[in-house]
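Slide 14.
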Amino acid sequence: MNIFSGIYQPDSGQIYLQNKLADITSTQTAMKLVIGMIYKHFMLVPQLTVSENIILGSSYKWRLNLRKKQMKLTRIAQSYGMEIDPCAIVGNLPVGVQQRVQILKVLYRQANI
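Slide 15: predicted structure.
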């Protein structure tokens, strides 16, 4: 899974997605191929909010409308029956809620795999 999500590079073999050779060289490449990964060990920054953790690394625009992102995140969470405060500090959340943040991160990025 670490190779598939771009964290490690393969020693041999090839990966095909939809019958096309996929050269997954980084996590950014995996994101462009809409591959998401929910890690057993959280990949969250405890000092940041839920919404900051979710959008971290997903956009490289200079201007960020955080309020708009929070509203989108809330809609996604509610559509899956999850109640999460997008302004909550991740480090203050129980482990189960932190796991939901990880799941929402993948859903927010619209991963197909």
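Speaker note: DSSP finds four helices and two strands in the chain.
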